[in-house]
Structures are given as structure tokens and as C-alpha cells.
DNA sequence: TCCGGCACCTGTACGC
DNA sequence: TGCGTACAGGTGCCGG
């Protein structure tokens, strides 16, 4: 599932291969892939054709390609999206949604998405971050991220700490996997009410988040299957380093207590019952 | 304004 | 073998 490290690996791949290339053709194979482009698929293709890509950028889990027109090709990988830069003769993927060819033939950009939670749109981006994602917070690896601002905002919330970690307007880039891993490292239970967390605990959590994200980034991201891959189609290796996620019943690597799986927000949360004691007053 | 619940979507695993 | 069901989960919308 693409979270910050996976999206950053993809961004770096796009940044290596796309700037300076001019889009020759755009073919939308599945309209749902461009549902966020209000003017429709035909307009999507028309406004991109002939445009030159200048840079590949990221905010949280969103990616965008800055164009010479001042607009941006904004994308989100959702659960299963892939942006691949491949040889034009390579056979189409089963779930190919959008194909971009360039004026210099040889390689093309493909948006592939099995579950179609992801999507692409062309949006204004004159002032840096595209308008539709202006509400997305910076991520903890962004030099402009404010630790003090995050700590204060979390303490003002009345919710559980995991919900806060997953709220992209508070801190971006964290999904279900890295939220669980970070909370385990910090020794915090996901249901701890945000209002009861001390500044020290929150700073420790931020430290854990950064460690987890950086380690995953250096490993090339996390992958359980073929759903997440870099622009070259390669899978990451961080899944071999996961401490709790997906390890229900297996011993905690710190204390050997069996890892517990709970239903949470229509998904799963994995905790060590000993390292992450459940608060007396839990907040979902 | 803040918070929680749910729809969206498809492939896979599993039970019967 | 084939069918039905549960599950995976990021985001945005809606209701309280």
C-alpha cells in the first residue's frame, strides 16, 4: 500500500526519467482514473498534449508533475496505483488506465491501477503546491515540518492517536502500516486519547515515525505483493523489517509476547499487548 | 468546527 | 468446481 516511502521512491524514479520530455499523446483507457479531472477525459488529454514536464514533486502521498504551462498533472496512487516508465513495446498491464507517450519515442508513462482508488487530474499550480491538495500537511521528513505545531495540534484533538496519525491534515504520508510500526516503536497504544499524551510522548512518537519512514525509504518501500512497485516495476524490501504489521500471533521482537490484531476503522491494528498497554480510557 | 462512519473498488483467500 | 463472503485500505463526503 503506497505510503510516503513508496510514493517518494516513485517520485525519484519520475524525476530521473521525465523532466524535459514533451507529451505527444494521452490515452485514457478507464474514465474513473481521471474522475477528479472535472472537465472529463477528453479535456484531460487535450490540455496535456504538447506540454513539457519540468519536475516531479510530492506532498504527503500525492505526486505531481509540474508542466511548462504552469499547470500540474496531479496524481494519487490510492491503494494499488502504479506509475511506470517502460519501453513502448512492453505488453500492456491488465489494469492499464492511462498511457502517455512522448515526442522522443522509446519509453512511455503508464498509470496502472487494479482497484481504481487512485487517479490523475490536471490542476492549477502557480503557487507551488496544487490547490486541491493545499489542505494536506507537510510530512515529518519535510524540512518545513513543525514539530511544535504538530504536538500542539494533536493535543487539541479529541480522538485516538492513531486516527490523528492517519489524518493527512495534521501530518501527511503515514498510512495504516507505518502508523502501527511507529506506535509500536514509541510504546504507545493506538487508542490513547490525544489529549492525554504529553509533549515528551508525542516527540518520541515523531522520532519513531521518522525512523520508520527513513528505514522504509532506504529499503525502497514496503511490498506484500505486486501491487506496489517503483517506476521500474521493482518491489521494496521493507516488509522483511516490519515489527508488528501483519504479524498477528507471532512473538513481539522486543518481548516475545504474541502480537494482537484488532479491528479498527474498518481495517486492522496490530499491537504488542505488553509494549503497548491499552489505556484505561481508550478513544477510538 | 470537529469527529466518526461509510462508500468507493477488485483480486485473493477461505469456507461450504 | 463453483459460489458467496470477508478482507485489504486512502480519501472524500455526509451526518451528528
UniProtKB/TrEMBL annotation:
Its cofactor is Zn(2+). This is Formamidopyrimidine-DNA glycosylase. Keywords: DNA damage, DNA repair, DNA-binding, Glycosidase, Hydrolase, Lyase, Metal-binding, Multifunctional enzyme, Zinc, Zinc-finger. The active site is at 2 (schiff-base intermediate with dna), 3 (proton donor), 61 (proton donor), 267 (proton donor). GO terms for biological process: base-excision repair; response to oxidative stress. Belongs to the FPG family. It comes from the Bacteria. The keyword Zinc applies. InterPro entries: FPG_cat, FPG_Glyclase, FPG_N, H2TH_FPG, Ribosomal_uS13-like_H2TH, Znf_DNA_glyclase/AP_lyase, Znf_FPG/IleRS. Binds 1 zinc ion per subunit. It catalyses: 2'-deoxyribonucleotide-(2'-deoxyribose 5'-phosphate)-2'-deoxyribonucleotide-DNA = a 3'-end 2'-deoxyribonucleotide-(2,3-dehydro-2,3-deoxyribose 5'-phosphate)-DNA + a 5'-end 5'-phospho-2'-deoxyribonucleoside-DNA + H(+); Hydrolysis of DNA containing ring-opened 7-methylguanine residues, releasing 2,6-diamino-4-hydroxy-5-(N-methyl)formamidopyrimidine. GO terms for molecular function: 8-oxo-7,8-dihydroguanine DNA N-glycosylase activity; class I DNA-(apurinic or apyrimidinic site) endonuclease activity; damaged DNA binding; double-stranded DNA binding; zinc ion binding. CDD domains: EcFpg-like_N (cd08966). Involved in base excision repair of DNA damaged by oxidation or by mutagenic agents. Acts as DNA glycosylase that recognizes and removes damaged bases. Has a preference for oxidized purines, such as 7,8-dihydro-8-oxoguanine (8-oxoG). Has AP (apurinic/apyrimidinic) lyase activity and introduces nicks in the DNA strand. Cleaves the DNA backbone by beta-delta elimination to generate a single-strand break at the site of the removed base with both 3'- and 5'-phosphates. DNA binds at residues 95, 115, 157.
